[in-house]
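Please, structure for the following, as tokens.
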Amino acid sequence: EETIVLMGDFDGFDLVPPKLRYILGYANFNSENMKSLHNLERIGGEANFKGSRIEHLGKLQSIGGDARFEDSIIKNLGQLQSIGGGATFRGATKLESLGQLKTIGGSTGFQHTKLKSLDQLESIGGEAWFTFSKLESLGNLKSVGGNVFIYEDSKLNFTKVRVGGEIIIRD
């Protein structure tokens, strides 16, 4: 079976070719016509889903750089296991599950989301921001590398999480 590897960036396209498996550079998925990632498994650089019409990440397993899910309609991160950089979940009001996501390498913000749990997520390498989210459980979270900022989410309990910085709560 033929596999396509894009050696550069993916930007300005209306669809992801079904045979595309790897994008070695940056990927921008904000086209209104793009609905599926098909068989895409890895993105080497940053991934931007801001305003994306994609609902599910399909077979995507890793993003090497930062990931932006702002104002997206993604419901589930599916098979995605790692984000090498930071992640922003701002206004991702359809997101119900982080799926199989286990690690985020950088700072991460959960702002105005409907997520109830962090599911399988075990580590956040940088700071963590929880602002006006609906989180009830930290799931399998074991460590946060930097400070934890909690705004209007005071029911979150970090006693079983190793935090590299301070926990700052503002209600």
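The chain has a mean pLDDT of 93. The two ends are 55 Å apart (CA to CA).
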